[in-house]
């Protein structure tokens, strides 16, 4: 492995992991509340969280929205085969689409794996025909519609 691409290991301790776990449960928890639960002062918690943000361990604080509650009823996963020379340009175009919630380059010959959400099947069909199929370099698309969500992991196991 080329050392230029190695990401340095960050040193986070058990206290940082506890803080991350509390934030994962409720990112709106106050520094004071987290401190009380793990035995630190508000200032110590704030300092540690700021360090985790500066180190890039915490990328952002966000809100998880239930799509069905706001009229989004179709969740679909797509495997998109792309001509190798168009991989980056296709990814750049797709990441700009509001319907696309995640986009990954997967192993295999130029595969993009994508998740999208849509109000209904007609909106998904318009996305496929007007946006996805018309992108230069897209060879084929495999689409699977989510039937039932059993678990959705936001973040990661600590």
Any overview of this molecule?
The protein has 158 residues and is of the alpha+beta class. The protein has 2 domains: 13-64, Orthogonal Bundle (Arc Repressor Mutant, subunit A); 67-145, Lrp/AsnC effector binding domain/regulation of amino acid metabolism (RAM) domain (Alpha-Beta Plaits), CATH 3.30.70. Helices cover 34% and strands 20% of the residues. It is built from 5 helices and 4 strands; from the N terminus they run H-H-H-E-H-E-E-H-E. It has a 4-stranded antiparallel sheet with strand order 2-3-1-4. Helix 2 packs across helix 3. The two termini are 26 Å apart.
Task: Give the secondary structure arrangement, pairings included.
Layout: H1 14-25, H2 31-38, H3 42-54, E1 74-82, H4 87-94, E2 100-106, E3 111-118, H5 121-132, E4 138-145
Antiparallel strand pairs: 1-3, 1-4, 2-3
Helix pairs in contact: 2-3
Order of helices and strands: HHHEHEEHE
The figure for the number of domains is: 2
- Classify the beta-strand content into a percent band: 15-25%
Return the structural class: alpha+beta
How confident is the prediction overall: mean pLDDT? 89
Any idea what the radius of gyration is? 20 Å
Annotated CATH homologous superfamily of the largest domain: Lrp/AsnC effector binding domain/regulation of amino acid metabolism (RAM) domain
CATH-assigned fold name of the largest domain: Alpha-Beta Plaits
Query: Helical stretch count?
Result: 5
The order of strands across the largest sheet is 2-3-1-4
Q: Would you count the extended β strands for me?
A: 4
Silhouette: elongated
Helix content: 25-40%
- CATH class category name of the largest domain: Alpha Beta
Poorly predicted residue ranges: none
Question: What is the correct CATH architecture of the largest domain?
Answer: 2-Layer Sandwich
Terminal CA distance: 26 Å
Largest sheet: 4 strands, antiparallel
GO molecular function, one term: sequence-specific DNA binding
Organism: Priestia koreensis
Protein name: AsnC family transcriptional regulator
Pfam families: AsnC_trans_reg (PF01037), HTH_AsnC-type (PF13404)
